[in-house]
Design goal:
Largest sheet of chain A: 7 strands, mixed
Strand order of the largest sheet of chain A: 2-3-4-10-5-6-7
Structural class of chain A: alpha+beta
Number of helices of chain A: 12
Largest interface: A-B, 81 and 81 residues
Strand content of chain A: 15-25%
Distance between the termini of chain A: 19 Å
CATH topology of the domain at 67-177 and 224-271 in chain A: Ribosomal Protein S8, Chain: A, domain 1
Helix content of chain A: 40-55%
Order of helices and strands of chain A: EHHHEEHEHEEEHEEHHHEHHEH
CATH class of the domain at 67-177 and 224-271 in chain A: Alpha Beta
Shape of chain A: globular
Number of strands of chain A: 11
CATH superfamily of the domain at 67-177 and 224-271 in chain A: Malate/L-lactate/L-sulpholactate dehydrogenase, NADPH binding domain
Radius of gyration of chain A: 20 Å
Oligomer: homodimer
């Protein structure tokens, strides 16, 4: 079943207004969830909407809160998200980083006490749409063991890097686990194996069996010790600058809340678009690993999905869609 | 065979002065190579010194060149390395980024036309020693296939992130391949297997056999598609900002030369050291994956090796050491 973007957005907005979000926040959140589905990131679009609604109903998110400027350390701006809506906070923070970068070449907004920004790529596209390079990351609750350990002590701490480009921005959006828990559950429900090792089973052996990983809680960091180290560093950076909650602090409370986020933008008038095209051509110039296979740059598939959605509507999970219609 | 730090450094300096490096550059390079061995990074210390000497003899590196300031885009400074000595250029660039960060909270020096900086971690420690957060990365020649491709089109583009800490800085220094070519060769010479999959064999199967990977030239990016994407993005960032050589451009010439590098520093008076200690304690608080195993933070092992070297001297490969003595 395919639904036009505007229909999806309209329903989301109706539900959010009913939950007493002000017009501006309802509009932004509805747009963001619909855009995530439109871009093919279904796990962070329609499929995530009901659990987002729950965080509002259960008052885990303060729908009235506005982010507040705390202090300026040179050109670093520290903001407090006041436990408000993650999408709203992150959008404002990235807008401020864009503004700073356009004035100074660089802008860094570091925010503490905010909430889940849903899909990190949203803010990468936002920066690139404004003509800026965007680099942003967030910490999360512990959902990945550090290298050498058995129990989750690190977040999957997604990292987003985006660069503006005329024929479609280049946007990398990656978490530090090889596969998200959403992907593990999805693969498990379909009775399939993962395409690569995704974690360890209860006996400490690498496995492609999603259910074994869900049970052991030992999801694999990308590149073993390397992704473990990178996830650790992102949490350290966030905490050293914002003074906010680290993954350790987030895990000492019941539910993920009050995470810390970085929004770094770079801007200059000449971004050397011709040289960027050269990199893309060169990267794609090798022979495919599989017959008929393709080499894609980060963000290329997002744009394809977006165009497909614009032509044919957004494929939706009917069960969840009907659930939303009844909200 | 163990050699004191000062003896190693003295020999390196003697050789470099004989090659007509000025006192300041000979001192810096000798110190850096000796420190790399002292920190246990033997591949980038004594073992790398003879090939560094060759780049000077073959005039691949211009020992007389000094980096030049090109332009300021807001607070971004663009420098040209003028194909000089990579260690010298990178040290000056990081010093400038530190200076900018201490004045403005953030400093970014982006350098084009420089040369191999040898061990990236050097500049991470430099930033942290100056009380700054350091983030730096470089591009390289193509030595890793992009995800979905067979031939090398991406560099392994090392990324370094460092955060100052009283009891020992936290420093991550990671390349985007699961194992370096140095590690593959070393493991192959010892007739051993890699501890994890390190690439593909000629038939496109994942393998732990280092010689099969050296032959196929298909080293594995960390986290498959993720490390491939991250490596690509670092090259794009470097090229978009500096206008210098991308991996594509580096590979169109005979030898790796004129690479591009980023040196980003952050500084504020309060780096929340107590919260950083909380993260370290929490990360280490899980049970080890292997009996008797340990969970280490990035940089912890470097500091241990450094202290061992200071106590017992630096273990050296006697063949290479004798080679240097005869230079």
């Amino acid at each position: 079943m395919n639904i036009p973007f505007e229909t999806l957005k309209k329903e989301f907005k109706r539900v959010l207004l009913k939950l007493s979000l002000i017009e501006e926040k309802a509009e932004l959140c509805a747009h963001t969830f619909a855009a995530n589905s439109r871009d093919g990131v279904y796990s962070h679009g329609l499929n995530r909407f009901p659990s987002f609604v729950n965080t509002i109903i259960e008052k885990q998110v303060d729908i009235l809160a506005e982010p507040a400027f705390i202090e300026r350390n040179g050109l670093i701006e520290i903001w407090d998200g006041n436990f408000g809506i993650g999408i709203h906070n992150a959008t404002l923070a990235m807008n401020r980083a864009i503004e700073l970068a356009k004035a100074n070449g660089i802008g860094l907004v570091a925010m503490r006490h905010t909430n889940h920004w849903i899909r990190g790529g949203t803010y990468g596209w936002q920066a690139a749409d404004a003509g800026c390079i965007g680099i942003c990351f967030t910490n999360t609750m512990a959902n990945m063991p550090p290298w050498g350990g058995k129990e989750p002590r690190l977040g999957n701490n997604p990292l987003i890097i985006s660069v503006p480009r005329e024929d479609g921005h280049i946007v990398l959006d990656m978490a530090m686990t090889q596969f998200s828990y959403g992907k593990l559950q999805d693969t498990d429900l379909k009775g399939l194996e993962l395409p690569e090792f995704g974690g360890y089973d209860a006996n400490g052996n690498l496995t492609k069996n999603p259910s074994a990983i869900i049970q052991s809680r030992r999801a694999l960091p990308i590149g073993f010790w390397k992704g473990s180290g990178l996830s650790f560093m992102l949490d350290i950076l966030l905490t050293a600058i914002t003074g906010g909650r680290s993954t350790a602090a987030i895990n000492s409370i019941v539910r993920e809340s009050g995470v810390s986020q970085f929004f770094l933008c770079l801007h200059q008038s000449n971004m050397h678009q011709d040289l960027i095209e050269e990199i893309i051509r060169y990267t794609k110039s090798g022979s495919p690993a599989e017959p008929g296979g393709e080499i894609l740059y980060p963000g290329e598939n997002t744009l394809r999905k977006r165009r497909e959605s614009e032509l044919h509507g957004i494929p939706v999970n009917e069960k969840i869609w009907n659930e939303v219609l009844k909200m």
